[in-house]
Design goal:
heterodimer, A: 279 residues, alpha/beta, Rossmann fold, 2 domains, six-stranded mixed beta sheet, 9 helices, 13 strands, 29% strand, globular, B: mainly alpha, 10 helices
């Protein structure tokens, strides 16, 4: 389990997080959503021990992440948004890096590489950005680490690759693993992430599992407003609305609509879900 | 598994560092190329002008390559941690900070010495193969022990090793530079070292001047200086130059390098991946 306790962080003089509290439990694919500049990358870096918080503590399975103990790093794979791969063949990279991860699954790696159609015998520096990303994603998922942190994993991927990515992430998920996906492209991770965490202005403004959201909120399109909506946005031919789900039926989640609703008025949305739910 | 140092992990790290360091090949070709071009040039000039040529002269570039090249290499050894595209993967690679630091020190120290010796050896072989058929003469095979042999010293191996020890002792300063400075680490470290050296010289110069000016009643300061001078003179004249060099150079050198490596390690543990919100 990853625990952040009262984490405060500032960039130069600008305060980004103030006493932030967050828990990530195994067996979940968390989606970390937020606008540009909300602090998503900083939060991921603090979790990965790459940045140190000013106050508070971040631990993963009782390891203080700032110590960068090899035992912790063996259980962490951090996929940055931008990265460099050395000019060696994919197979060489695999032979050099996989021994660092005791639970590396070679069979799974080959499967992911096949799914993404990445040539292993080509030098990594000759691959396109998207291919490099798919290679590193395959490597990261095959490390079988207990926590995998991905910063904007769908950036640079074509549409079929995004579908493949969702498929292989779901396949690589185990009960003892935490996958955290940070993105501002909410559509890319729809039907994959659960729970949903939203970050705005350095604060966690939303943190609910999909079941709670879809049982408490109703999202859809209407041609006329009735005044009971929690959130509305004008679209061609009518409105997209978020309302309280009074039918007690689970409704399909429109993540983009939910994101807009939460970022415009998080209190209303959180209050609507809180009724009869456990946060 | 030891959380600070594990030989298996250390081995993986060395292998990874050496095999993915594509720039080493470029450096190697550059050194061999410069050596060969200069050798051919010097033999051509010599044959055209009838000037006498010391067949060993190009090998005397070795200290320049060792110190300047080695300091530049040391200044780049941890450049990945200051590169926004490389730093996240570098820090999250499962090895301890101590292992990562020691690999950097070993590769930029002992590794560079071995690398440079091989490059010079290959350079002398290649230039020999090219100059022999044309000029019926060529470079001597590079041998650092022969190159730096000092007659006064009992052991020519020891005299050769002195130059390598000076490099090993001093390159740790540039390792700190590669950790601390994001860009132009070599120039900034060289500048910072010069400023610190000048500051020390000024401070000690003033101290010496004022102590002398105070003109203490019995001139104890002069007596101290004279006894230190006499001590070194006696040691030098005793014929045991090796022991002399050890005392004045190796022990302070070890203390110097230990201090800078501890500082370098602490700096590395404190390093963060900044940039991007």
């Amino acid at each position: 389990m990853l625990i952040m306790e009262n984490v405060s962080f500032r960039y130069n003089k600008k305060e980004l997080f103030k006493e932030l509290v967050l828990e990530l439990k195994p067996g979940n694919i968390y989606g970390l959503l937020g606008k540009n500049g909300a602090g998503k990358t900083t939060l991921l870096k603090i979790m990965g021990g790459l940045l140190f918080s000013e106050t508070g503590k971040c631990t993963f399975n009782d390891f203080d992440v700032t110590k960068r103990d090899p035992q912790f790093l063996e259980d962490l794979f951090f996929l940055p948004e931008e990265f460099f791969l050395p000019p060696v063949k994919g197979s060489v990279f695999l032979n050099l890096r996989s021994p660092f991860y005791p639970n590396f699954d070679h069979k799974a790696f080959n499967y992911y590489i096949d799914e993404f159609d990445i040539p292993l015998e080509k030098s990594l520096n000759t691959l396109s950005f998207g291919q490099k990303k798919k290679f590193l994603l395959s490597f990261g998922l095959a490390t079988s680490t207990k926590i995998m942190i991905m910063d904007e994993p769908t950036n640079g991927l074509d549409i079929p690759s995004k579908t493949t990515l969702r498929k292989i992430i779901a396949k690589s998920m185990t009960e003892d693993r935490i996958i955290l996906i940070s993105t501002h492209q909410v559509k890319d991770v729809e039907n994959l992430i659960d729970p949903v965490i939203m970050l705005d202005d350095g604060k966690v403004i939303f943190n609910w599992d999909i079941n709670s959201i879809s049982s408490k909120l109703k999202m859809g399109s209407v041609s006329k407003l009735n005044g009971n909506e929690l959130f509305t946005q004008e679209v061609m031919g009518g409105y997209e609305v978020v309302t309280v789900n009074e039918d007690k039926e689970d409704y399909a989640l429109n993540l983009e609509l939910l994101f807009n609703a939460v970022t415009s008025n998080s209190k209303n949305i959180n209050d609507a879900i809180k009724v009869g739910s456990y946060e | 598994m030891n959380k600070y140092f594990n030989t298996k992990r250390f081995g993986f790290l060395i292998k990874e560092e050496v095999l993915t360091n594509y720039k080493m090949g470029i450096y190697f070709i550059t050194i061999v190329g410069i050596y060969t071009v200069l050798a051919i040039l010097s033999f051509t000039v010599s044959s055209l002008t009838d000037a006498a040529i010391n067949r060993n002269s190009i090998n005397y570039m070795f200290p320049g390559f060792l110190f300047i090249g080695g300091y530049i290499f040391s200044s780049l050894i941890f450049s990945d941690i200051n590169d926004k595209f490389k730093s996240s993967l570098w820090f999250s690679l499962p090895a301890s900070t101590l292992e990562k630091y020691v690999v950097g020190v070993l590769l930029s120290g002992l590794g560079y010495i071995i690398f440079l010796n091989i490059a010079f050896l290959v350079g002398s072989l290649v230039s020999n193969a090219l100059t022999q058929p044309i000029f019926k003469d060529g470079m001597e095979l590079f041998n650092p022990v022969k190159l730096f042999s000092i007659d006064e010293l009992d052991s020519s191996f020891f005299s050769a090793s002195i130059i390598f020890l000076v490099y090993i002792f001093t390159h740790s300063v540039f390792i700190i530079g590669s950790i601390v400075f994001k860009k132009a680490a070599f120039i900034k470290t060289a500048l910072a070292s010069s400023i610190v050296s000048i500051a020390y010289s000024i401070i000690f110069g003033f101290l010496g001047y004022y102590i002398g000016k105070l003109g203490l009643a019995d001139h104890w300061d002069i007596r101290v200086l004279m006894s230190v001078e006499r001590y070194f003179e006696e040691l030098f004249n005793s014929g045991n130059l090796v022991s002399f060099l050890y005392r004045i150079f190796i022990i302070p050198g070890i203390i110097f390098t230990l201090f800078f490596n501890v500082v370098g390690y602490i700096k590395l543990t404190e390093k963060e991946v900044k940039g991007g919100i």
